[in-house]
Amino acid sequence: MNRSTTRRGLRLSFNSPAVLGFAGACLAAMALNLFTNGASNRLLFSVYRAPLSSPLTWLRMVCHVFGHADWNHLLNNMMYILLVGPMLEEKYGSANLILVMLAAALLTGLINFIFFPGTMLLGASGIVFAMILLSSITRTGEGEGTIPVTFILVAILYIGQQVWQAITVRDNVSYMAHIAGGAVGAGLGFMLNRVEIRKR
Questions:
Q1: 3-class DSSP state for residue 102?
Q2: For 59-95, what is each residue's pLDDT tens digit?
Q3: Domain that holds residue 27
Q4: Radius of gyration over every alpha carbon of the chain, rounded to an integer in angstroms
């Protein structure tokens, strides 16, 4: 086979529509934020205490995961999501992965709204950690009622690290979002695996 034939045979594969769609939405939100000099992040892509009578308050409960403070913040989250997400989407399907992302977004948004009224939260780190915990609990052949040792180790190390950093480190990282996202990934991971096993 010659090079020209090889080149003609190459094609792009949109193997993970939910993950690619999410990454594209985050990139668009970042571009809009730069264009509006930060106004779109404040208006749409971050969550903070605001009147519940405003429809934008409820929109921000979910859409805060699309917003990022800067390119470094965006790229760090996207690297994890693009690495882990396609495997999870292939395993559980696009609809279920979207459910996990939506649940992580809503839970972290509600917690920040209720318990941290003076803090503006944005970014997809809650979804990143939901995927990390979900990937650690993903099984291929075990029966119902089993817990992977890898999940236990990841959960202990992850939760311990986040709690320690929340206590000792003073920065702009929301460790609450990481812990809440991880809880979503673990909880829904158990549910999705149980459903899958029963279908066999």
A1: helix
A2: 999 999 999 999 999 999 999 999 999 999 999 999 9
A3: 16-199
A4: 19
Overall pTM > 0.85 = no
Q: Is residue 61 part of a domain?
A: yes
Q: How many CB atoms lie within 10 A of CB 149?
A: 9
Contact 162, 106 (CB under 8 A): no
Asked if 171 contacts 86 with a C-beta cutoff of 8 angstroms, the reply is no
* Residue keyed to tokens 């929109």: 59
Cβ neighbours of 135 (radius 10 Å): 19
The number of distinct structural domains making up the chain is 1
Contacts of 25 (CB under 8 A, 6+ apart): 66
Q: Across the strands, what pairs with 47? A: 121
In terms of DSSP H, where are the helices of 93-174? 94-115, 125-137, 149-168
First to last CA, the chain: 42
- Here the tokens at position 25 are 């939405």
